[in-house]
Design goal:
3 helices; 34% helix; elongated
Length: 145
């Protein structure tokens, strides 16, 4: 049963990501025209596009067992935190106010910092910080002031 689900997309980040992809596409075209190195450039272009497009959005899902943080294709942005591993959580009203050891960042209304019993803390953005906090509270996770 899903208690909370959200997708955060950065439209501002899209042009920044498309610039290196366009440069690589131009370089791939030039290598094709030159007749040397096209295969390497084509594979590099595909890898770069997949990696950068994975960073453009974050999906957050909370159920009774775990919190899942995923990117568009879950290649780079991929983290699962079991609820029983969470020591406490803290909600901030700005996306740049949370600093976990593992930090996922995209512009949003707020952020959440998850402190774990063992392991690194994790922070991620959210557009509904209080709704996310309510879902964690229902699961019995203590909230820091």
């Amino acid at each position: 049963m899903v208690l909370y689900e959200e997708r955060i997309v950065s439209r501002l980040f899209l042009p920044i990501i498309l610039l290196p992809i366009a440069a690589m596409a131009w370089g791939t075209w030039e290598t094709y025209r030159a007749g040397k190195g096209f295969e390497i450039m084509a594979v590099s272009l595909l890898l770069l596009a997949f990696l950068l497009l994975d960073l453009i959005a974050v999906r957050i899902g909370i159920d009774e067992r775990e919190i899942r943080i995923r990117g568009v294709m879950s290649l780079v942005v991929r983290k699962t935190i079991r609820i029983e591993d969470i020591k406490s959580f803290k909600v901030s009203d700005h996306w740049m106010k949370c600093y976990g050891t593992i930090h996922f960042t995209l512009p949003a209304k707020g952020c959440v910092l998850i402190k774990r019993h063992n392991g690194w803390s994790v922070s991620f953005p959210t557009n509904s910080p209080e709704e996310l906090a309510r879902a964690l509270s229902i699961l019995g996770v203590p909230r820091e002031a």
